Amino acid sequence: MNLFLETFIGGLLAGTMYSLVAIGFVLIYKASGVFNFAQGSILLFSGLTFVTLLEKGVPFAGALAITIVILVVGAVVIERTVLRPLANRSPMTLFMATLGLSYVVEGTAQGLMGAQVHALDLGIEDVPVFIGDVMISQFDLVAALTAVLLAAVLALLFNRTRIGVSLRAVADDTRAALSIGINLNRIWQIVWAVAGITGLVAGMLWGARQGIQFSLSLVVLKALPVLIIGGFTSIGGAIVGGLIVGAAETLAETYIGRFVGGGITPWFPYFLAIAFLYIRPAGLFGERALERV
Amino acid sequence: MSLVESILTQAASALAPLLDVRNIEVIYDGAILAVADVSLSVVPGEIVALLGANGAGKSTTLKAISGLVVADRALVSRGEVHFRGENVTGIAPNLLAARGIVHVLEGRHVFGHLTVEENLRAGAFLRRPSRHEIERDLEEIYAYFPRLKTKRKTQAGLTSGGEQQMLAIGRALLTRPELVLLDEPSMGLAPLIVEEIFAIVSELNRSKGTSFLVAEQNIALSLRHARRGYVLDSGRVAIEASAEDLLGRDDLQEIYLGVATAP
Lengths: 293, 263
Description:
- By secondary structure, chain A is mainly alpha-helical.
- Chain A is built from 11 helices and 2 strands, in the order ααααββααααααα.
- Chain A has a single domain (2-120, 127-279), classed as ABC transporter involved in vitamin B12 uptake, BtuC.
- A two-stranded antiparallel sheet of chain A has the order 1-2.
- Chain A is globular, with a radius of gyration of 19 Å.
- In chain B, α4 runs parallel beside α7 (161-173).
- In chain B, the strands form 2 sheets. In chain B, strands 6-7-8-3-9-10 form a 6-stranded mixed beta sheet, sandwiched between helices. In chain B, strands 2-1-4-5 form a 4-stranded antiparallel beta sheet, with helices on one face.
- The A-B interface holds A 88, 162, 165-166, 168-169, 171-184, 287, 289-292 and B 66, 68, 70-73, 92-95, 97-98, 102-105, 109-114, 118-119, 121-123, 125-126, 155, 157-160, 168, 171-172, 174-175.
């Protein structure tokens, strides 16, 4: 029983790391209906920028602030050069554009800052802590709290501010939003900037765990099952989806893995995602069209 | 300048159109001609009806005026739209909303996942009002549409068709427009609700002086509230006349059905 609890809780906590990545996708998907393939590269780019600044002797807070400024500028540039010229095109066109964008961002990041692996120390020691007799990782705990905090801040932003309401309005009906004077371009810039900052948070935590390196951009692939399970349009869904994926893959590895020779963590989430597609294609919290009957 | 002349100039400036559409042509996707040649005008404080059958070009004309054609990958390829004497052809819809033209789209297009009140608030954002101002403006809209007040916390997608139409109009009014482009407000609604909506539009027009350009299939009803009307046929203005004259004609149905052509 203890093993089960430990595995389960450890999985849940690790899952919040997936949630962090997935939230960035949800933001952009909501605002523009596009699966932003470049989110992984943005994660890599922001993590790499941050760690490079740290290595150059910039203090933590300064490096964070500079990286955020760069991400905001980047969002504006992307909106002007990629999104605006392609406005009103099909989602597939935009998806292809983000695919191209991911290579540009990745190339820029590695071209400017090198391709070697950087260690990132956030000052969170990865020591086990005990709650009762259940051992959990302190790092995972911090990551989980960060994810929850981020989600709470975003929820406040969406529900309590004018920008948030405008953003949800754009997500619901772009044309109607335009017709009442909402500046779509501005909204896109804000969303991409916020998604970039979410990527930075995720990049920092993932980077601290496995080093800042190229493979960071591949966490995109881990976010996909999370999004399918949680739904593409809900931040809460991204959190829950991450928890499910995290818990399911560690439990599966522990309990089923030995019968099939282990190593099932990489594919189990996809198996789960396919099961969800059968049962609930919109995901747990995805928005189905709201219709009055 | 003689007295007569000065009176005439004054009269002319009073009647200077708020909206002046000059010979516009609209093409979708670079190939499909939706509006061939439409000219129309709206003077301040007027309700004007834009009539015509399905596909006659009513919605496209409205979208050409509000700038929303762009969102449908269409283009005003010829002609000009003037608003308050300025050429506004091709200006982005959100900027036109700031200048005083607001478009209430066909099929209502409320923000379904937002509450009724959030929908209304979104209409006011354009003006960056203070909290106090926004509350006062909301109350004003609720006074015109009491049904909306009772549903203020309901998700807009869950309200009835009539309520959604009222919400779409209320939301548009919060941008403080001078001209409201109202596309097919009667679509899919019960006759009593349609009557109620048109009565409110007339009331808004009288009390606030807001001008309306209303595209409608319901000829009789819209002409009872409008002062003048245009009948579109295959992307052109077939008839332009006062509401009484149009109501008096018996060939409107034929033009609608494409049996007769306008003289």
